[in-house]
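ingest -> fold -> write
write: protein_1
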Amino acid sequence: MQTKHNHSSHFSHLCKAFGIYQTNCYIIQTKKGEFIIDPGENSTQWILSQVKNPLAILITHGHFDHIFGLATLHQALPNLPIYAPQADAFMLESDCFDTGLTPCAPSYMVACDKNEQVLEIEGIKVSYLHFPGHTPGCSVIVIGGAMYSGDFIFKRSIGRYDFPYSSANDMRDSLQRFSELKLEDMEILPGHGESTRLCFEQNNAKLWSERI
């Protein structure tokens, strides 16, 4: 099912879940064009039907269910830049989980130093905040007054940290840093499931970090 939500007069987004893991793909609509976040399996046709002036593809992390449609989308839109966390680039460049993924390298690698990287894409501010643990490059993206959290933060839950390339120690540290973010409350749009709120999940993150 496709859903639409307005952040403000300047930003809104569409969301649709794809694949057996029901991975959320987001299209952020701005006055200048669209940003595509995490194109999953069989998402390309839907994306192409919804975008008029795509500006960039933004990847939260490199797990296959979030990038399975990336190669097909890149083939359809070869000039569209792909931004991804540098520490997860190897997951885009190879089928490291042996899932049948077609590799597709990012155009721009976003630095991963447990900090915020502020990008300006077509005059629009896009922030990557690096929170490793689920993957080495796992990040949340803040754009248009909303946070796209990938598989780091879910509604009343957090991402798993027992996969290959995951780290419980990194996840514990990331949750602590997340709980201390000095940001205005905003909607969180996760990689799976329903949306939630930053302030609510910051309180939960403290509890999760103590249990890892």
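write: protein_2
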Amino acid sequence: MAKKSKFYVVWKGRETGIFTDWKECEERIKNFDGAQFKSFDSLSEAQAAIEKNYWEYVAKKEAGQKTLSKAVPASIGKPIQDSIAVDAAWNTATGDMEYQGVYLGSGTRIFLQGPFKDATNNIGEFLAIVHGLAYLQAKGSSIPIYTDSKTAMSWIKKKHANTKLALTPRNKPVFELLQRAERWLATNTYPNRIMKWETQYWGENPADFGRK
């Protein structure tokens, strides 16, 4: 079965527009401060989206998603806007992994790392949280961090990445990052809460790479 085509809208980047190839999109947004982009299943959706303000469009889309789900329990509530959301992406074809963090209040990307060869999504989620903690420590900030990975949250609690991934020459840099992250967790304390992003109630994680 042929892979379904995606259309990538870039509202803010080195060049804006609609792109049909992820690599072309990535060239416009990678390491671009505050990049704004999202993938769509059809050209008509992409064309409609690019004519709108990015945040207005995302807000409407998320609102639409919420109407399809059951009422948000009081114990869940709404996400804290003064926070960071982190996420990772893993390419099933190449094994490459990358991760990023965004400020929830504005959607501004604050860091992007990768791609890293022969890694896993769980490793990326773990590294993203530690990167976020170190970033906030340097800023003297106590705001929370959201992740949609229960596995990464458990690794953070144990201060150890319990990965089964085998070390190879290609992924050695990833293991070096893991050692650095575990060492940071072992030698630092932090006031920031690590919180679960409630996808079923709030929609997609704001740090999602939009490649689903």
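write: annotation protein_2
The chain has two domains: 7-59, 84-202.
The beta strands are 7-12, 17-19, 36-40, 84-90, 97-103, 109-116, 145-147, 194-196.
pipeline exit 0
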